């Protein structure tokens, strides 16, 4: 893996502030290395030390006969953006007033992105994000202006097809100014046998009284690796709502780092995963209540079969001044086989006294009494199991207000 | 000519996990159209009999035979027994969070239709059928939209069981304490529902501790069931006698 950010081939080497940031991130990554079994936040999900050697970061021209520019037919209206093999191929045009979407490389050119790039988390905290900062050339800068309500969701499709094994470092910066409202849907998929590593970092700034609804549908290829960080800063009265769905792939980790920075900021982080074979899915969150009257709520449900491995790590941090704060968190998993495994690590870190916090994690199998009740009415055992699994997951999908989106997210299971 | 529907011969069965024996040499034949009542002390094994007949995996048959219409029941899965026409109204109907009553019933009806090579009902056909049946059992459409049995009162659960009986139209209905927890009106609704379904071809096995339901449904036979087998068979007069003098005489005699 070429980590040489001094070279001419990395974009922005000639932009001093960017060069300095890249170098700092590169140095941190080189110094810390990849997380290992001893890295607390990664102990259930560390990757083999030589993993990155398998991949190249060089963009290669691909020939997809214009498929990159074809619109997806989706069960909801949206503005579509597409990355193909890690490169931005199609960007939404004709945007309503107050909405700006531009490629990352343009945004660094005139420094508009500077106040936001790597400002939501510190260099050295997230190893894959440092790698991303050092190397990312592809990505988006999205700004929803003051009091602007974007009706149609922004749909970002990341598709991988044939080609040499590729590490895609994609960096998106999403800014909602005061009172802005938007929905962003990220969709990851691939040609069946594609071999790649997606390393995605979203920095999300939810302004005062702004509202962002964020969905992520991870439907990567079976052999794919997927590491994503959503680093979110929410101002007074702002709301961040997130829902992530993991289908099975070799390795997937979605991490949310959410700072509720001012009063009445809130976050709802839900998710679901379904693993059938030997895949690995990690949903990790760190919700930081940094001001009084902040709220967070999280429900993640998983269904595991075969020899799959699920990981849930949830940290709620409540700062000393963050009184009258509420943080709730629950993870539940259905473990359908003896070979499947779930590791859970809930952590509460509370430094204020007037707070309401709860967290929990449960693992169980399908209920034998329920299965027999259904069978005794003529429903075949296998169908009964599927009905109960769907019912189990419906609890969390039911939290999505937009029924069309909920159905679409579910459809990959 | 009488036609045998269910024939249980010298049946032995117990708990699969522990091997504990519960049914110990039970004989019972039910012909088409007949109504049999089974009465007996708590813990005698009445509910276990209903589960063994319907194939609950917690129990194993260790001896004897059970035949239903030309089929050896022990070789069939629970869902196959149901599709052949055995229905069990459970003593404690099971709650299933996340599955609406309506959806559950649609799955059940269509699964049985499919098994019997009948076309599945579409949404409209099903709803029509369901609505008219629900009215007979005083079950509101609000209740049908709720998760099945979740938060239902004891009486509501029992009415819903009988609604299922009327929708699924089995050949043999086993009612395990279908009368427990019912108020006077609900008892009438349940017994009317059962009588409506009950024809010359359909048979009933009623497990109960009370006479109220039996007075409405009028069993042909009343059996005393104790320690895993039937120790005495009579008619309604036997049930009336039990109500005043209890099981003591019969239990002592059986020892
Ligand atoms: N799965 C099981 N595991 C262990 N013991 C069981 C199991 N099922 C039933 N039993 C025992 O077998 C005996 C018979 O139980 P069963 O429920 O069949 O009785 P019953 O005649 O229906 O009683 P009641 O009138 O109280 O409903 C009881 O002692 C019960 O505890
Ligand atoms: Mg019983």
Offer a quick outline of the entry.
The complex is a heterodimer of chains A (413) and B (255). Chain A is an alpha/beta fold. In chain A, 16% of the residues lie in helices and 41% in strands.
Describe this structure in words.
Chain A has helices spanning 16-32, 104-109, 127-135, 368-375, 381-397, 403-410, and strands at residues 79-84, 87-90, 99-103, 138-144, 154-160, 166-176, 181-190, 196-206, 211-218, 225-234, 239-246, 251-260, 266-275, 280-289, 295-304, 309-318, 325-335, 341-350, 355-364. Chain A has 413 residues and is of the alpha/beta class. In chain A, strand 1 and strand 2 (87-90) form a beta hairpin. The mean pLDDT of chain A is 94. With 255 residues, chain B is an alpha/beta fold. Chain B has a single domain (4-254), classed as P-loop containing nucleotide triphosphate hydrolases (Rossmann fold). In chain B, 40% of the residues lie in helices and 26% in strands. In chain B, a hairpin with a 5-residue loop joins strand 1 and strand 2. Chain A binds chain B through residues 368-370, 372-381, 383, 387-388, 390-392, 394-395, and chain B through 54-58, 77-79, 82-83, 87-88, 90, 93-99, 104, 107-109, 111-112, 115, 164, 168. The structure holds adenosine-5'-triphosphate and magnesium ion. Adenosine-5'-triphosphate is lined by residues 15, 20, 22, 40, 42-48, 58, 91 of chain B. Magnesium ion (MG) binds at residues 46-47, 91, 176 of chain B.
């Amino acid at each position: 893996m070429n980590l040489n950010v001094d070279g001419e081939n990395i974009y922005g080497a000639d932009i001093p502030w960017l060069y300095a940031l890249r170098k700092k991130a590169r140095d941190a990554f080189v110094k810390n290395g990849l997380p290992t079994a001893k890295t607390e936040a990664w102990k259930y999900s560390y990757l083999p030390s030589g993993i990155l050697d398998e991949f190249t970061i060089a963009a290669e021209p691909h020939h997809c006969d214009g498929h990159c520019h074809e619109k997806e037919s989706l069960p909801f209206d949206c503005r579509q953006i597409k990355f193909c093999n890690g490169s931005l191929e199609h960007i939404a045009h004709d945007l309503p007033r107050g909405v700006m979407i531009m490629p990352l490389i343009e945004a660094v050119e005139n420094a508009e992105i500077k106040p936001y790039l790597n400002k939501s988390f510190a260099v050295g905290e997230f190893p894959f994000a440092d790698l991303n900062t050092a190397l990312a050339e592809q990505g988006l800068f999205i700004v929803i202006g003051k009091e602007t309500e974007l009706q149609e969701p922004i749909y970002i499709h990341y598709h991988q097809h044939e080609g040499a094994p590729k590490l895609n470092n994609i960096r998106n910066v999403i800014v909602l100014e005061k009172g802005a409202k938007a929905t962003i849907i990220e969709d990851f998929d691939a040609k069946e046998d594609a071999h790649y590593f997606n390393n995605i970092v979203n920095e999300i700034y939810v302004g005062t009284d702004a509202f962002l609804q964020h969905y992520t549908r991870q439907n990567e290829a079976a052999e794919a690796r997927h590491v994503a960080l959503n680093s979110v800063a929410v101002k007074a009265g702002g709301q961040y709502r997130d829902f992530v769905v993991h289908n099975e792939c070799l390795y997937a980790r979605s991490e949310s780092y959410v700072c509720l920075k001012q009063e009445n900021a809130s976050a709802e982080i839900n998710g679901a995963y379904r693993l059938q074979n030997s895949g690995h899915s990690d949903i990790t969150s760190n919700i930081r209540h940094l001001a009084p009257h902040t709220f967070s709520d999280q429900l993640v449900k998983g269904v595991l079969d075969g020899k799959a491995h699920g990981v849930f790590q949830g940290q709620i941090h409540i700062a000393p001044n963050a009184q009258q704060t509420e943080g709730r968190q629950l993870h539940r998993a259905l473990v359908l086989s003896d070979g499947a495994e779930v590791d859970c690590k809930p952590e509460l870190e509370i430094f204020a006294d007037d707070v309401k916090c709860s967290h929990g994690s449960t693992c169980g199998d399908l209920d034998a009494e329920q299965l027999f009740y259904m069978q005794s009415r003529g429903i075949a055992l296998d169908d009964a199991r599927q009905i109960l699994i769907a019912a189990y997951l419906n609890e969390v999908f039911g939290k999505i207000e937009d029924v069309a989106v909920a159905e679409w997210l579910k459809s990959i299971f | 000519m009488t036609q045998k529907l269910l024939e249980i011969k010298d049946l032995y069965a117990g708990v699969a996990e522990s091997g504990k024996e519960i049914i110990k040499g039970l004989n019972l034949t039910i012909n088409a159209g007949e109504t049999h009542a089974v009465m007996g002390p708590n813990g005698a094994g009445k509910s276990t009999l209903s589960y063994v007949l319907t194939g609950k995996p917690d129990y194993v048959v260790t001896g004897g035979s059970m035949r239903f219409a030309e089929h050896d029941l022990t070789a069939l899965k629970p869902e196959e027994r149901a599709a052949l026409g055995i229905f069990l109204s459970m003593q404690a109907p099971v709650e299933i969070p996340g599955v609406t009553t309506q959806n559950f019933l649609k799955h059940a009806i269509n699964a049985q239709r499919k098994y019997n090579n009948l076309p599945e009902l579409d949404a409209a056909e099903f709803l029509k059928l369901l609505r008219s049946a629900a009215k007979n059992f005083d079950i509101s459409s609000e209740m049908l939209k709720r998760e099945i049995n979740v938060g239902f009162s004891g009486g509501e659960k029992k009415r819903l069981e009988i609604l299922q009986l009327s929708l699924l139209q089995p050949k043999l209905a086993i009612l395990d304490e279908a009368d427990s927890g019912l108020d006077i009106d609900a008892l009438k609704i349940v017994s009317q529902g059962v009588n409506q379904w009950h024809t010359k071809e359909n048979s009933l096995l009623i497990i109960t501790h009370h006479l109220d339901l039996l007075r409405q449904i009028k069993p042909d036979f009343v059996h005393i069931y104790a320690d895993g087998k039937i120790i005495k068979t009579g008619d309604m007069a036997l049930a009336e006698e039990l109500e005043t003098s209890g099981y003591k005489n019969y239990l002592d005699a059986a020892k």
